Amino acid sequence: MRRATCILLLALFFSGCAATKLAPVTGPGFTKEEDEKRLWTRSEEEQAAIGRSDIIYRDKELDSYLNGVAAKLQPPGVYKLIPFKIVVIRNPYCNAFAYPNGAIYVHTGILSRMENEAQLATLLAHEMSHSTHRHQISGHRSFKNKAAFNASMRSTLGSIPAVGELTNILGDIGTAAAVTGHSRELESEADMEGLKLVIKAGYKAEEAPKLFEHIKAELEEEDAKEPFFFGSHPRLQDRIRNYNSYLKAQTGLKKGVINAETFRKKTAGAVLENAFLDLKAGRFKSALRGGEKFVSIRPGDPRGHYLMGEALRQRGDRGDAEAAEKHFRKALSANASYADAHKGLGLVYYKSGKKAKARDSFTTYLKLAPDARDRSYIQDYIAQSR
User: Please, which residues have CB within 8 angstroms of residue 16's CB and are 6 or more apart in sequence?
Assistant: First the structure.
């Protein structure tokens, strides 16, 4: 019922969104119109609220890398007019959205599903094109009752894990950008203009549709329901079709770079963070996929195996307990003092009736983490394992 309500709201929104065409921001001649100035001011207020929240994924090295990639996509003259800034949001759903003043928010959910820098550049160039081509003010002008729409959308999405938290923080501008995106016409323009930027920056253009084909395949395999517009099936189909059509018409494209290894190393922490967010949301397949990816990048880090062990333990399908035990043991092989892996083993042993082993694992956990928040909870398990 909730999903049907969302679809109806989106249909109403887009029926009122005939785009108002404005000249793109390309150089010194750009001057904001009066309602556009107000939109920028409101955008800054919303961004301040986001910055004060705990939804930001804070990683200075990653931030520097993402903003470095963005800087390759636009000339300095445009940056002077629109000071682009890339920020990562802790959210497991596939999405990214831009404000008119160049602030671009990328979810860990979509970042963790990318394979290389060329795909990252595709996403950033698309969002940057929304700002340079002034799509936000166009949409704002053509849909007068947006505040009422956004209030309804926030109410409808509020009970979905990891969605309500975000939409409660975002204001009207952010909610419209994150949840509904823009009209099909403006999204297509952002696809095409963004791809031009990707090609001009020297990236491999063929990676553009691969990003969305990869996301689409993963979501279909996992039967995952994505509440934001970027991860919706129709939008993914649009992206793929737009990019393939443009590439088919091109001749003489250079090979281009993808920078896969650099991308994997820089985004490893965000991949793990997102896997834990997927686990919290009960998206076990997604969590396990993220854990596998993290382990492939940092095989000596115990957190990846711990995450996979915990996902298997919580899912509890046939054979999961044995597989979880193996991952917890691999985590401890990497770091014997990794407390959470001892707790995970204890929970696996306790459920399988191996009380002595459970007691030993729980006792080791509390020795390694004497101030653990769940200390009394674990002490109860120890008492029940005697």
Answer: 142, 143, 144, 145
SS3 135: helix
* CA–CA dist 133, 100 (Å, integer): 9
| 198/322 Cα distance (integer angstroms) | 46
Structural contact between residues 309 and 341, judged by C-beta atoms closer than 8 angstroms: yes
Average pLDDT over residues 143-170: 57
Contacting residues for 3 by C-beta, under 8 A, at least 6 apart: 225
- Enumerate the β-bridge partners of residue 107: 89
Q: What is the pLDDT of residues 206-239, one digit of tens each?
A: 999 998 898 888 777 767 665 555 556 677 888 8
Domains of the chain in start order, with CATH, are 2-249 (no CATH), 261-384 (1.25.40.10)
Length of the chain: 386
* Start-to-end Cα distance in the chain: 48
41-77: pLDDT as tens digits: 999 999 999 999 999 999 999 999 999 999 999 999 9
What 8-state DSSP symbol labels residue 226?
P
What would the two tokens of residue 354 be? 């191996």
- Residue 23 DSSP code: -
8 Å CB contact between 288 and 271? no
Percent helix, strand and coil across the chain, each rounded to 5? 65, 5, 30
Within 10 A of 254 (CB to CB), how many other CB atoms are there? 10
* pLDDT tens readout for residues 250-300: 877 888 999 999 999 999 999 999 999 999 999 999 999 999 999 999 999
Neighbours of 107 (CB within 10 A): 29
CA dist 72 and 194 (Å) reads: 12
